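Repro case for the chain-ordering regression, as requested:
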Amino acid sequence: MPELMQFLLSGVTVGAVYALVALGFTIIYNASDVVNFAQGEFVMLGGMFTVFAFEAGLPLPLAALLAIIATAAIGVALNKLAIEPARGAPVVSLIIITIGASILIRGLTQIAFDKQLHRFPAFSGDAPIQIVGATMLPQSLWVIAGALAIFVGLWLFFTRTLTGRAVLATANNRIAAQLVGINTKYVMTLSFALSAAIGALAGVLVTPITLTGYDIGIALALKGFAAAMLGGMGNPKGALVGGLLLGVIEALTAGYLSSQYKDAAAFVIILAVLFAMPQGLFGRQSTDRV
Amino acid sequence: MSLLQIEGLGIDFGGLRAVHDVSFSLGAGEIVSVIGPNGAGKTTLFNMISGVYRPEHGRVRLAGEDVTGIEPHLLARRGLSRTFQNLQIFQAMTVLENAIAGHHLHEKGPVLADLLSLPSSRRRAAEAEASARMLLDRVGLGRAEAQEAGSLSYGALKRLEIARALALKPRVLLLDEPAAGCNAVETEEIDRLIAEVAAEGVAILLVEHDMKMVMRISNHIVVLDHGEKIAEGAPAKVSRDPRVIEAYLGPQVRETADAHG
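-- result from build under test --
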């Protein structure tokens, strides 16, 4: 039994990171129907910027804050330099642009920083906490709390604020959104900034546990994508539930089958979801008018 | 003073002269129709006035202010609103939500108030909802408010688009074929609605193929053919203009018409 508890705890921790990545996908997808495969790079940048700002002598909270702001700025630059000029291109082209951007960001990071793995100290020490016979790092609680806080924030944003609803309106019909006075360019810029900031926050929270390096982004983007697909693309609730589920499934696979099959779990889930219920757990049924 | 002034507007598409040197003006409470055969450049003209295309020549003035080529959302703020021939509706939203979306600019308030659901934010939302319901009743969609917009008939969507445009409380309203796809009864309803809105002082610019409707409600008609203005004036005058008849029916028919007339 303690064994199962241990798997669950580590699964929830990893799942919270996937959920944060998936939440980042949600915003840009809601604004533009684009799945931003550079989302994993935002997580990597959040961690890397914090590491180097911290090693340069800044206090950790300040380093983390700067990292989040810098990553948000890179998100805005990605939109302004690569996505906005290609406006009018099919969604598939835009998705491929984000893949290209992720490769570029990875390459530049490798040159600007290095190829090593890095970490900085955990926020509340490394003394493990005992829970029902299983252990958990205090940093895991930070990750889980971060995912929950971002989820609640986004849920309020999309359901209550006019700006949040303007984002949804933009995704639904860009021209109609402009007609009612919504500045759709601003909506896009805002959603890239928010997505990048959320990704960076995930990077800051998780680096003390998993370490960070220039190439951690791809795997995170794919896992986050699987989580978002499982929960239903575009729905914050789906992103949270999908992320946590995926994390737990991975941990159980690694624990009871073999850790070699851990990564396969995400891809089996993507395939299963695409075959059985393409709209995911909480996704809206898509109806196209013909 | 005229509310909307079009001065020498023109655009080419890769050597094809889509619209050339078109000028006219539109005053408060006036209904001006743009007519012409298919491909005459009516919708292109609309797209230039409403900021969808940036014109290569000429100016658009809204209440004296030069608004040539500025983006649609900025025009919406200045009181110019439009509908589309091929519909631009939030298909995934309900009918009521579509009408509420039209109140976007009037509903704006501090984000924090929205997040905390403060009374001020709830009041703004309630006002927008009440006004949206009123507009839906006005276009005869009151009972359909809970339906998903995508499930409505074409004619109903046309009216929903008008309701959403009216929600912006526009000074100038551009309607691109509002009666297309509507049956005779629906056309008459739209007819009446347009006259009512104009009577409230909104300047209305109309593209419409239903000639009976155009002749009935327009104060002034502008006729386009091959991108150029070939005639303009009161409905009675335009309908007798030989160049207009020629553009619509071809030169031969005109000869026969002359022979008989």
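Ordering looks correct now. The first strand of chain A starts at residue 129 and ends at 131.
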